[in-house]
Amino acid sequence: MSRHRNVKNLDIEDGLDDYDYSAEEEEDDLSPEDRAMMARGVAEVQAALGVEAGKVTVAQIEESLWYYYYDVEKTVNYLIKKYINPPAPKKKPPPPQQPNGEFATSVFAPGMPISPQPRQSLASLFWDMPWGNIPKHRETTFIPPHVPRGGLLGGSGAAPKMSKLQALAAARKKKAEEKKAGEKKAEERAAADVEQAQSKLKELSVNETTTTSSRGTASMAGAFGRRLKTAQSAAQGRVPLAANEPGLTGSSIPSLSTSATPSTLSLSEDNRPIDKAPQSSFAQTLFASPLEKDSSRKRKLPEYFALYPDLPQSVIDAFSKPSPDDIVLQAQAKAGKKNAAPAQPKKKSTATALSTKQASAAQVTDKVSELKISDAVLPKSRNLDVPAEYTKSQQKKSASFVVVGHVDSGKSTMMGRLLLDLKIVNERAVDKLRKEAEIIGKGSFALAWVMDSREDERAHGVTIDIAMNRFETERMSFLILDAPGHRDYIPNMIAGASQADFAILVIDAKEGNFEAGLRGQTYEHIILLRSMGVFRLIVAINKLDMVNWSRERFEEIKDQITGFFKRLGFQLDKIAFVPVSALKGDNIVNRSTDPAASWYAGRTLIQELEASDPKPRELRKPLRMIISEVYSTMQSPVTILGRLEQGCVQVGEKLLLLPANQMAYVKAINTNGGEPVDWAVAGQHAEIALDGIIQEYVSIGDVVCDPNHPVKVMKEFTMKALAWDMFWPMPVDVHRGRLHASGKVTKLVAVLDRATGAVTKKFPQAIRKGQVARIKVEVQDTVPLEAGQRVVLRRGGETVAAGLLE
Ligand SMILES: Nc1nc2c(ncn2[C@@H]2O[C@H](COP(=O)(O)OP(=O)(O)OP(=O)(O)O)[C@@H](O)[C@H]2O)c(=O)[nH]1
């Protein structure tokens, strides 16, 4: 039962010399408090089961109570399902019969007699092969693997969930599309112009130099048609042309307006179309192996690929001679007609004419080689002094907070209520969720579903991943990071806490639930918050409606938790307690109107949030951002989302991504839920569309930094760790925000004095719970880490230690 062990006594300062290992092992037994809870729980469960209680043993009841953290209701439901009214076992289907009437048996069936059947055909020859004849009841059921969602974190098998930022980006896109529809009429007029222009294209003349018998010029001629098509498509709004593409700018683009006449549609040598196109990212992926790519912007590979590299000879030949139009024009010129083609150079002799032609062709070829359609145009960095811009902009104070607490304490419900009462979501939307929740018997989770949007979260009634949402008050703008309470998802809680300025700790005040929470994730979350450097806490003592707004209960919980905060070194003036009912909406945004709650005259939850200062922003330091999501957007197939831990970022800037050690450029930045901006600063969550990098190089947990001040990528580091449990050199999981890496504690350097940091014992054999130690940790793959960062070490789903990198 060690799974419930937590740091209960952090004052243990003794060395390990006199440490009794066997005593530590025996901690697995129940504490007197647990025993009392267990006895009470067993009695309650037996009472609830009534006459059916005889069908389950006390041991079964105890085991279930332990599993459900003394939740009697859940335990009773489980016992009924498991032992009292178990679902009828599925009938085994009879083994399939062979055509001759004998039953088929798998070759793996124990004691299977070898069939004496005569082998008539190939089918019958293989009839008893394990892959051909497995009885239905022995077939494996394929359960599709969990698919990470395209939303903020983690995954569901359902359609990718949109993050708030993505959703707003989608809304913007929709708006743009509507605008586009309004322009449809103008496009139709343009299309009519194009048709008119097309009908006159036959009258176009092609300069004689294009008739040179070379593959290059043939391609050029072919591209000419294509180029007009491109221009036409562009006029129809189908193919966007970059304004500064060489050969496509200004006068070089044949005008297709109503005023255009065929005679204006001639091309000068300088802007003749070419048979080349910029490398698409698809082409880059196909033709450039990741290793071939330089980390700088210089490409080792040719920048362009021929559109039609293998033109058949017939196509080349078709353009190797003067076109019929040219022949007519030349004849007209000879006849001295008015509309003759431009005068040709005088024929001196056949040889001279040929050499002139060749020279001309060579000239054209040279010019063509100079021409290129540039790569996707990157916005240039305006080299802004972003910190100064930020100060000038006088933006609203923004802060992010993580919502933590034991499973089912009401975290998501509270955030749903907050958004509803602030009118960020409307009553109708919540009613709709309520109806949907009622269908699966989870009507009470309607408000929680405002935050928990994943299918699996809704089906199980638990938060699995961090859910983000944004709201603003008159004074501040906030980002909610709703963390899961279940112990299995602690790494997601760590990720949430690493991005937060402060936290709301939700505690279930119901009798028994607070106590269960203490043994569960309430303590663990508090210690994790402390380890992650989150010191400002708002403790929301929830579900007070279930204890009739008992002031005594509120004070009892407050006292117990305060004692714990003191021991952990929290500053008590940074901690606030608010009695609330998330379900009813009491003291969240609106003050409770319940007469039983009149004893509380302090701040509501929203008032406490507004009274919370974000952590100081280090804007002048080099950029550091941890990627919490990677996805594709309209702006870039490699779009990242994360919180800027320090420094700033601006459009056009070059960034370094680690550990891939790849450069990328900032194509666009969105903050505040999808608003396009020129820059973002520390403390903000930004969505950055990248250019010059492929998605394979980018992962959740990677670090984005200033290439001039890169983060070190390391395999071994030293840290000062507070032991949550006894540990020694052993394998651990290293958590740093979103970054998870396998590693091991390689060396215990020293035990340190908790107050002064002085060495009290060198090279101990193990570090006891509550001790602070300097240790060395090695990770399997190199990870970007630097001094001062906070790291959590876990093993087997338990937090072992946490501390600071030295
Ligand atoms: N009576 C009452 N029930 C509440 C209150 N707040 C939440 N609940 C109920 O508690 C249950 C759990 O609520 P959730 O919001 O899902 O809890 P959670 O802490 O987000 O759960 P996880 O994220 O899975 O840890 C739901 O049935 C809620 O309706 C409250 O103030 N009063």
UniProtKB/TrEMBL annotation:
Residue spans of biased composition, Basic and acidic residues class: 175-192
Low complexity compositional bias, start-end: 246-268
Bias kind Polar residues: ranges: 206-217, 278-287
Comp. bias (Acidic residues): 12-31
Domain (Tr-type G) ranges: 396-617
InterPro entries xref list: GTP-eEF1A_C, HBS1-like_N, P-loop_NTPase, T_Tr_GTP-bd_dom, TRAFAC_GTPase_members, Transl_B-barrel_sf, Transl_elong_EF1A/Init_IF2_C
Reactions catalysed: GTP + H2O = GDP + phosphate + H(+)
SUPFAM superfamilies registered for this protein in UniProt: EF-Tu/eEF-1alpha/eIF2-gamma C-terminal domain, P-loop containing nucleoside triphosphate hydrolases, Translation proteins
Gene Ontology MF, one: translation elongation factor activity
UniProt-listed PROSITE patterns: G_TR_2
Quaternary structure (record): Component of the Dom34-Hbs1 complex, also named Pelota-HBS1L complex, composed of dom34 and hbs1.
PANTHER family the UniProt entry points to: TRANSLATION FACTOR
Protein name (Swiss-Prot/TrEMBL): Elongation factor 1 alpha-like protein
Organism whose genome encodes this protein: Chaetomium thermophilum (strain DSM 1495 / CBS 144.50 / IMI 039719) (Thermochaetoides thermophila)
